[in-house]
């Protein structure tokens, strides 16, 4: 592990420019662990773009090959009167290669330095010990300070994203207890895990028994970068109008809760410790009277039209 983290660990909203004083020499490494190729971009693409811009390293670990998830391009071709032969007869290798090309272009736009695809079937339904070990080994090799993955929400309901996170958390536990005597490698102390995708945007810690996202990253200044990355996922119909719908609604609602135009929301897995009570720059800068107007000022489709 490197030296002390210089990252601003104060909760709530990270303001644009708040990372400007970040010392590149002490840059941290973020590892994302998601089920499918596009998940990394839709959940935390804006956050990653901001961290990449200030010099942090980003590695995206993706459990499945993505060949079956939202295979719109191929399913839609079969609905046509005269399907294109190349598309209609594409096999798994072709479909996966096309999806990986989309992912690589999106990653380059965001500034993700490394992509690791474990290439499991998208249809996995349960936690798998071998996959847990694979993830743990990758965590040990990459040594990230920060991990981002999906919020497990309600694991009682089958959801590949919940299963992915259960495997990621099991892998974090495993990597955290590696012992050189037994495993040939040392323990990996990941410092914080940010869980994305909890669709709960209440404004305080008392509503709904306290279930909420407790940390928001302001992605307004990089929202065009996130859209451009999503525009690469043409084969699953995530480009164009859907990209704009998702950012307007999903990131717009997170932004409303955070008091900015567009945000990405997280639940932190571990407690945070401070020397004093934390108050963010965003909290100090907020004008409660005009907050709802300022966070509604970006005309997304006007500024970033469908290409
Ligand atoms: Zn997914």
SSE inventory with pairings:
Elements: E1 29-34, H1 39-53, E2 57-64, H2 72-78, H3 85-88, H4 92-110, E3 114-120, H5 129-142, E4 146-150, H6 160-176, H7 180-183, E5 192-196, E6 215-218, H8 223-230, H9 240-258, E7 263-268, H10 281-285, H11 291-294, H12 300-303
Parallel strand pairs: 1-2, 1-4, 2-3, 4-5
Antiparallel strand pairs: 5-7, 6-7
Helix pairs in contact: 1-4, 1-8, 4-8, 5-6
Provide the domain count: 1
DSSP summary, beta strand count? 7
- Sheet/helix structural class: alpha/beta
Number of helices: 12
As residue ranges, the low-confidence spans are 1-12, 15-21
The CATH homologous superfamily name equals LmbE-like
SSE order in H/E notation?
EHEHHHEHEHHEEHHEHHH
**Judging by the overall fold, what is the CATH architecture?**
3-Layer(aba) Sandwich
**Major β-sheet profile:** 7 strands, mixed
How confident overall, as mean pLDDT? 90
Which molecules are bound besides the chains?
A: zinc ion
Radius of gyration, taken over Cα atoms and rounded to an integer in Å: 20 Å
In CATH terms, what is the fold-level topology? Rossmann fold
Helix content: 25-40%
GO biological process, one term: glycoside metabolic process
Organism: Jiangella asiatica
Protein name: PIG-L family deacetylase
Pfam family, one: PIG-L
